[in-house]
What does this fold into?
Amino acid sequence: MTASSTATLSFSDGSPSIEFPVLKGTVGPDVVDIKTLYGKTGKFTYDPGFMSTAACRSAITYIDGDKGELLYRGYPIEQIATNCDYLETCYLLLNGEMPNAAQKDAFVSNVSHHTMVHEQMQFFLRGFRRDAHPMAILTGMVGALSAFYHDTLDINNAEHRHIAAIRLIAKMPTLVSMAYKYSAGQPMIYPKNDLSYTANFMRMMFATPCEEYQVNDVLVRALDRIFILHADHEQNASTSTVRLCGSSGTNPYAAIAAGVACLWGPAHGGANEAALSMLLDIQKNGGVEKIGEFITAVKDKNSNVRLMGFGHRVYKNYDPRAKLMRETCYEVLGELGLQNDPLFKLAMELEKIALSDEYFVSRKLYPNVDFYSGIVQRALGIPTSLFTAIFALARTVGWIAQLNEMLADPDQKIGRPRQLFTGATARDVMPLHQR
Ligand code: CMC
It folds into this structure.
């Protein structure tokens, strides 16, 4: 990160102009370093939604929204999704480089040996209602890990951070499957460490004590790809939440639980559930014939209807993850003999119509990863209510990598945004009988 030039800020009220360094990253927009602005002028900047604000420096994930490009540590997502598995991706995100064969074996073995959760967590789980949303359970269970693993709570200790990272990556599949089994009224299935990360998760989801799960390589690969595509995504809302939460020095489990809670929202991780519900609704109300009516409602500003799975704060082009997900959709539906799945056909038709409609074209609204991931997950037998929990499982590694990067940054400070205050100025409290 180098200062390449300066930017001058001038004021129309006669205050003196000030110069700020303009920083250059390795790629992407330059950044005006304004951290001395308040000290020099007594003024803040105003940027709700962080539309123009780089809140940190990072070397993990890069998105070029105009090109529709996504890089993990410099590697294009298409190459990673085609050549690597999820645990290799985790290693890359955490360590900055691809593992060699020995490093991969050691990492896989390490993760595999941390898949069980403390037995007492089952009793904690039983405190939830059976109809609790899996994300409510997951938020609680991830936070509760801090009550069970006291030896890894010091966020300033590199060894604690390393073990917490391995534990979180290893235990998320177990926690997500526990949440699912609990809602289905079935006993939990313990992890089986000779299976791959993703095959083990599918077995914990779909086996029962009386029936073993038959691993299908095409389906395992499809879910593994979903994990890879969701592993990290720069400074999105949940990642920024994890960074802000972790900036106070809280323990890693609490910081990741904050990320899970943020991810739950329908504008973020909840969108895949919302996208599938939208498709099911259109199908129920007349299917392809009714797409025109639906699009009209989406374009009506008073309707509050959005085309879920479309649009993105950063991508102003086709989300590269959506392309890969559509490819996976074909593979899974082919493997399961569902090539004529009406929901997939409906999604493709909806995409075609939206991509040629002036409303979407002029706003650069393209399908995002969630548009097709719901169809794939549904075909794999994953219930809709679990989609966001699957996203959380996959994103855990990104949250940890970003948290650890922040903690290692010498510029790190507790996050403390300022405000443009618009409320009442100082006034006196009247005694109750005079109000
Ligand atoms: N359907 C209809 N109109 C839309 C949509 C949509 N999905 N997304 C944006 N717009 C319109 C919006 O109404 C606005 O129009 P106008 O300029 O006339 O007021 C314009 O496009 C810009 O929208 P915005 O809400 O200011 O854009 P944003 O960057 O704040 O929002 C978004 C990004 C993802 C929240 C939004 O596109 C959205 O709500 N999409 C649907 C939900 C969704 O699929 N979310 C998943 C995101 S990808 C997963 C992840 O990375 O978390």
Observations:
- The chain is about 50% helix and 5% strand.
- The beta strands are 2-9, 18-24, 31-32, 61-64, 69-72, 75-76.
